[in-house]
């Protein structure tokens, strides 16, 4: 008798993760789907199945996290796919039993979290709609087949995944009881579960209003309410990530500047939703800034955002501030001025952060080359090790990890740390998976995309920029690093190169030159003009010599330490940059000289990195 392979897919991923207005919605949706997947995997294991994927580092990694506990223990992320081997001799009834147990565990885990949210937000919920939706959220698909001794493990697994894909395509088309009421504002998939009188109720329940932080006219379905009300755990906003370099710079300087920042932090203690954020940050759930002099959301550090917080509520808005809290924010507004102006001279925080999205290359080909289940288990365990390592790497670089499910990573990182963070993730992935290869003998690699974005852009746009950068990193030859700068009011700037070409090292070197005022803005934008001037010149030795002399002239316009910069010192970086330009898509440099435009784009992106480094005053990120 043969053994069986079982696979289970959970979802919908779009509803759990992508439907988000705030970073906390995004993070908690990912966390919740991981918790449901953990419960499913644990049920399969408890019923006699041998887990192949996930393969946790330690057995306790699959233990559930309670909504009333700190989320500090929920550091192990599980993807929404479960793969297991079932013992030989099992009947179809035995397999159906384990599938039913896994589905029951998944539903129970979802209902625990949804139940906690329903208890918290019950006063503003339409209970009939809530009851309808609670049983109509989770998607559960299972497929299994005998482990064919002739085909072997690898081919059987491939056939099983095709079978599962067909099962998911069929879906479960349950009858839908539609209602003539507004849909959820997050994704428009389900009707809102918020009652019509919620405005009056929330005006009397400020704690709940602060948990939900509804915009005027915003509607939420059961998933939206669960994301915001199932736990008090907070997740740092994009504004806090953007301000982190500025905060670290002040911590490094000390003196009156640090005292002023600490005074502002004391006033934040008087504002309840900032105090709640601090408490949640220090639990270790997701990103933490507990060692920071300012463990709060960064909105109050940006004058425009602070002014927006202090404005009177518009029609349809609930005033989240008491008179005491409004007074505290006004005091913060006064105390912030010396930091921003010439008294202490720090200026406003740079409002940019980096969206880091990474994905493994040739993962499918590598899995297809694993001939035995034990090899797949070893592969899964290394992926679990990488997910655990990713959390430490991102936090060591002051970043906020949204999720790390196997080879898939999404994080928010300060701009001054993003390139170093990407390199460490890439190298960690390569080191952990170097023993596994595809049929051509190539080990898996990690492509990383970085989008440098303005913190006031809509979250949906920021995520799209990050995903686009990840796609760019994979083309044309994978194992790449792609960086895009999305300035407000300006055209985006994109660069991409294979990791072996040293793009990360060049960016850091150009950023250092910007910081030392060796590269001037005139040189940067003068180089873009050169890209137009040499657009149609033939590529030959004479042209290359002329271009090198023109680039040298731009370098020499700005002197370092009273001496003209010798371009020979950077010739290796310049050659590598021009070589990388040969692989850029044609549309990126259409109408320009590819090599010169490539160098100009690297300088422009490095200029933004240098500006944030300057605010951080080179204070290294510390482990939290």
pLDDT averaged over residues = 87
What is the correct CATH architecture of the largest domain? Answer: 2-Layer Sandwich
Backbone shape: globular
- Helix count, per DSSP? 22
> Please, how many domains?
4
Summarize the structure.
With 624 residues, the chain is of the alpha+beta class. It is 50% helix and 12% strand.
Describe the model.
This protein is an alpha+beta fold. It folds into 4 domains: 4-170, CRISPR-Cas system, Cmr2 subunit, D1 domain, cysteine cluster (Alpha-Beta Plaits, 2-Layer Sandwich), CATH 3.30.70.2220; 238-340, no CATH class; 350-501, 2-Layer Sandwich (Alpha-Beta Plaits), CATH 3.30.70.270; 506-624. It contains 22 helices and 12 strands. The strands form 3 sheets. The protein has a 6-stranded mixed sheet with strand order 6-7-5-8-9-10. Helix 2 packs across helix 8 (222-229). The longest helix is centred in the N-terminal third of the chain and has 30 residues, at 92-121.
Looking at this protein, list some descriptive labels.
624 residues; alpha+beta; Alpha-Beta Plaits; 4 domains; six-stranded mixed β-sheet; four-stranded antiparallel β-sheet; 22 helices; globular
Write the layout of secondary structure elements.
Blueprint: E1 4-11, H1 13-18, H2 23-46, E2 50-53, E3 81-86, H3 92-121, H4 127-134, E4 139-146, H5 152-170, H6 198-204, H7 206-212, H8 222-229, H9 238-253, H10 255-268, H11 272-281, H12 303-310, H13 323-340, E5 352-361, H14 363-368, H15 373-396, E6 400-405, E7 408-414, H16 415-432, E8 445-454, H17 459-474, E9 480-486, E10 493-498, H18 503-515, H19 521-533, H20 541-556, E11 559-560, E12 563-564, H21 571-581, H22 594-616
Parallel strand pairs: 8-9
Antiparallel strand pairs: 1-3, 1-4, 2-3, 5-7, 5-8, 6-7, 9-10, 11-12
Helix pairs in contact: 2-3, 2-8, 3-8, 9-10, 9-22, 10-13, 12-13, 15-16, 18-22, 19-20, 19-22, 21-22
């Amino acid at each position: 008798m043969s053994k069986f392979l079982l696979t289970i897919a959970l979802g919908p991923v779009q509803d759990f993760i992508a439907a988000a207005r705030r970073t906390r919605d995004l993070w908690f949706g990912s966390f919740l789907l991981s918790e449901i997947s953990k419960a499913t995997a644990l049920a399969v294991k408890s019923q006699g199945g041998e887990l192949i994927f996930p393969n946790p580092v330690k057995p306790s990694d699959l233990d559930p996290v309670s909504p009333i506990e700190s989320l500090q223990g929920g550091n192990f992320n599980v993807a929404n796919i479960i793969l297991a081997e079932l013992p030989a001799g099992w009947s179809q009834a035995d397999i159906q039993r384990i599938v039913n147990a896994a589905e029951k565990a998944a539903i129970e885990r979802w209902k625990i979290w949804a139940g906690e949210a329903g208890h918290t937000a019950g006063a503003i919920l339409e209970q009939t709609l809530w009851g309808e939706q609670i049983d109509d959220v989770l998607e559960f698909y299972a497929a299994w087949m005998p482990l064919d001794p002739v085909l072997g493990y690898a081919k059987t697994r491939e056939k099983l995944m095709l079978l599962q894909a067909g099962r998911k395509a069929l879906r479960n088309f349950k009858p839908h009881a539609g209602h003539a009421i507004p849909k959820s504002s997050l994704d428009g998939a389900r009707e809102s579960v918020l009652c019509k009188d919620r405005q009056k109720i929330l005006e009397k329940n400020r704690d709940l209003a602060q948990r939900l932080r509804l915009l005027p006219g915003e509607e939420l379905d059961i998933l939206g309410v669960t994301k915001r009300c199932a736990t008090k755990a907070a997740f740092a906003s994009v504004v806090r990530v953007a301000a982190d370099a500025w905060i670290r710079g002040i911590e490094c300087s000390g003196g009156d500047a640090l005292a002023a920042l600490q005074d502002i932090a004391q006033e934040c203690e008087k504002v309840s939703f900032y105090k709640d954020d601090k408490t949640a940050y220090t639990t270790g759930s997701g990103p933490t800034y507990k060692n920071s002099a300012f463990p709060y959301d960064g909105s109050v550090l940006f004058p425009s955002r602070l002014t927006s917080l202090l404005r009177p509520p518009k029609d349809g808005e609930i005033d989240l501030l008491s008179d005491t809290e409004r007074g505290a924010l006004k005091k913060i507004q006064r105390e912030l001025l010396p930091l921003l102006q010439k008294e202490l001279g720090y200026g406003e925080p740079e409002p940019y952060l980096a969206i880091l999205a990474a994905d493994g290359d040739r993962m499918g080909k590598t899995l297809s080359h694993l001939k035995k289940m034990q090899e797949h288990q070893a592969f899964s365990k290394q992926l679990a090790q990488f997910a655990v390592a990713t959390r430490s790497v991102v936090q060591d670089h002051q970043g906020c990890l949204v999720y790390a499910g196997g080879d898939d990573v999404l994080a928010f990182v300060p701009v001054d740390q993003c390139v170093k963070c990407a390199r460490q993730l890439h190298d960690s992935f390569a080191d952990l998976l170097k023993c596994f290869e595809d049929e051509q003998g190539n080990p898996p690699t990690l492509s990383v995309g970085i989008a440098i974005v303005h913190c006031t852009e809509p979250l949906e746009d920021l995520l799209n920029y990050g995903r686009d950068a990840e796609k760019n990193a994979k083309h044309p030859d994978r194992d790449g690093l792609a960086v895009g700068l999305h300035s407000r009011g300006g055209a985006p700037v994109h660069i991409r190169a294979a990791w072996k070409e040293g793009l990360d090292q060049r960016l850091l070197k150009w950023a250092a030159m910007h910081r030392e005022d060796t590269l001037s803005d005139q040189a940067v934008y003068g180089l873009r003009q050169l890209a137009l001037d040499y657009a149609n010149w033939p590529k030959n030795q004479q042209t290359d010599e002329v271009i090198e002399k023109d680039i040298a002239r731009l370098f020499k316009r700005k002197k370092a330490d009273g001496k003209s910069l010798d371009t020979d010192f950077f010739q290796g970086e310049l050659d590598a940059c021009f070589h990388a330009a040969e692989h850029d898509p044609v549309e990126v440099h259409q109408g320009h000289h590819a090599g010169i435009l490539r160098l100009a784009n690297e300088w422009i992106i490095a200029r933004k990195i240098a500006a944030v480094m300057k605010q951080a005053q080179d204070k290294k990120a510390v482990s939290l």
